[in-house]
TrEMBL record:
Modified residues (N6-(pyridoxal phosphate)lysine): 287
Name of this chain's protein: Adenosylmethionine-8-amino-7-oxononanoate aminotransferase
Keyword terms of this UniProt record: Aminotransferase, Biotin biosynthesis, Cytoplasm, Pyridoxal phosphate, S-adenosyl-L-methionine, Transferase
Originating organism: Candidatus Accumulibacter phosphatis
Assembly and oligomerization: Homodimer.
Family (UniProt): Belongs to the class-III pyridoxal-phosphate-dependent aminotransferase family. BioA subfamily.
Catalyses which reaction(s): (8S)-8-amino-7-oxononanoate + S-adenosyl-L-methionine = S-adenosyl-4-methylsulfanyl-2-oxobutanoate + (7R,8S)-7,8-diammoniononanoate
Listed pathway(s): Cofactor biosynthesis; biotin biosynthesis; 7,8-diaminononanoate from 8-amino-7-oxononanoate (SAM route): step 1/1
Protein localization: Cytoplasm
InterPro entries linked to this entry: Aminotrans_3, Aminotrans_3_PPA_site, BioA, PyrdxlP-dep_Trfase, PyrdxlP-dep_Trfase_major, PyrdxlP-dep_Trfase_small
Residues bound to pyridoxal 5'-phosphate: 119-120, 258, 322-323
Cofactor: pyridoxal 5'-phosphate
Entry EC no(s): 2.6.1.62
Binding site for substrate: 59, 152, 287, 321, 407
């Protein structure tokens, strides 16, 4: 196999996600597609001997490197036991153990775990469960959802309703029953003399006004705790979550924390919502939970929500299902991932790594084209001052030419590496990114 062989076949037969396929068409200006032959740690290798440092954890899923020996071993062992069984009427060891361990990680507050295979489905489940639990409790009028400006919760038709990214949503507007949006606490919105805390309080005041008027129709508020990732790594003060939790309690509205991207240690704590000292009514997880190995998602919820469905009547149950709900291999990958967190004390060791990443980025603070240099745990980002509408694509190419895989979101460049990145690899990643930035700005 060679790069060009696989590339041609891929362009003919595979419809790639989040992609205008024509951009990859033949010609000198075509956007390069990278045929990946293998992966090891933070490195991806193509068929022609080139390598790329995976600076975005393969769309934020990979935590402990590609082909991690410990996760591989766990999966090999599971393959010899059970690959999959339906989870309606049957159960198995990996799904039970995983549910127990996730519950323990929430201090037992979210002790009921419902499974699916991808993030968008977890969002759908949380929305449906919230609405249905109110309905079962005689509050069927709660039929609406609330999300933050710039929110991203997935791209199925239901999840798009609570997603506020025009590029993904606008074409499908006629199909969607949109949620209401309230102001984001994005710290970049700070005005002269304002702190991130002030922005959070201002956004919470707007939330309060909205809830005060509409709460009787609202089932849930859905948020990405601390970092709105897909709309450009917008970071905000945890005070917003504290205030939102209190307002949701006061107005009888569920709080859904979508930790699909920010969970599993990304924000510096295992769950991002921990930094606000709160618990949500629903917690959505996916992406990193299986270590980046297999599609898996889940929604964790409380005794109160669970009790609203527990009844003699079947129709009051939560009858949602996916064929691969609770897949044994995916659950085993998740258990192996949680084992690594515990055995290697990952949350502690990531503190030094995150500080190192911050130090590497310091020189950028004075760069004339860099704005809003920011970091939360194992995510760092900055915005680039440039009027060039092609900037993002230009940077992507310059980065690939320097052996690093980074995909800016508009003019936001971000780093979200696997936790197994070494300090030397971190230096390499940032130094090459700075070189790519200057090349992209001057090309
Ligand atoms: C990626 C993401 C989703 C959607 O997950 P998929 O597996 O891509 O469907 C939902 N919410 C957030 C916050 C995400 O980052």
């Amino acid at each position: 196999m060679t790069n060009s062989d696989l590339l041609q076949r891929s362009l003919a037969a595979v419809w790639h996600p989040c992609t205008q396929m024509k951009q990859h068409a033949e010609g000198d200006s075509a956007l390069p597609m990278i045929p990946i032959a293998s992966g090891k740690g933070v490195w991806l290798h193509d068929f022609d001997g080139r390598r790329y440092l995976d600076g975005i954890s393969s769309w934020w899923v990979n935590l402990f490197g590609h082909c991690n020996p410990r996760i591989n071993a766990a999966l090999h062992a599971q393959l010899e036991q059970l690959e999959h069984v339906l989870l309606a009427g049957c159960t198995h060891q990996p799904v039970v153990e995983l549910s127990e361990r996730l519950s323990a990680l929430t201090g037992g507050a979210l002790g009921h775990c419902f499974y699916a295979s991808d993030g968008a489905s977890a969002t759908e489940i949380a929305l449906k469960m919230s609405f249905h639990s109110w309905r079962n409790r005689g509050q069927g009028g709660k039929q609406e959802f609330l999300c933050l400006r710039g929110s991203y919760h997935g791209e199925t038709v239901g999840a798009l309703a609570v997603t506020d990214v025009a590029l993904f949503k606008d074409a499908y507007a006629p199909l969607i029953r949109p949620a209401s949006t309230v102001p984001t606490p994005d710290a970049r919105l700070a005005q002269e003399g304002e702190s991130a805390l002030d922005v959070a309080r201002r956004a919470a005041a707007a939330l309060e006004r909205h809830l005060d008027e509409h709460h009787s129709r609202i089932a849930a508020l859905i948020v990405e705790p601390l970092i709105q990732c897909a709309s450009g790594m917008a970071m905000y003060d945890p005070e917003y979550l504290r205030l939102a939790r209190a307002l949701c309690d006061r107005y009888q509205v569920h709080l859904i924390c979508d930790e699909i991207a920010v969970g599993c240690g990304r924000s510096g704590t295992f769950f991002a919502h921990e930094q606000a000292g709160i618990r949500p009514d629903f917690l959505c997880l996916s992406k990193g939970i299986s270590g980046g190995y297999l599609p898996l998602s889940m929604v964790l919820t409380t005794d109160t929500v669970y009790a609203a469905f527990y009844d003699d009547r079947v129709s009051r149950g939560f009858l949602h299902s996916h064929s691969y709900t609770g897949n044994a291999l995916a659950c085993r990958a998740a258990l192996a991932t949680l084992d690594i967190f515990a055995e290697d004390r990952v949350i502690d060791t990531n503190r030094a790594l995150s500080a190192h990443l911050g130090n590497c980025l310091k020189p950028l603070a004075d760069h004339p084209h860099v704005r809003h240099l920011r970091q939360c745990g194992m995510i760092a980002a900055f915005d680039v001052r440039s009027d060039d509408t092609q900037f993002s694509e230009r940077f992507y190419r310059q980065a690939l030419a320097r052996e690093i895989l980074l995909r800016p979101i508009g003019n936001t460049i971000y780093f979200m590496p696997p936790y197994v990145i070494s300090q030397e690899e971190c230096d390499f990643l940032v130094a090459r990114a700075i070189a790519a930035l200057d090349a992209a700005l001057h090309s």
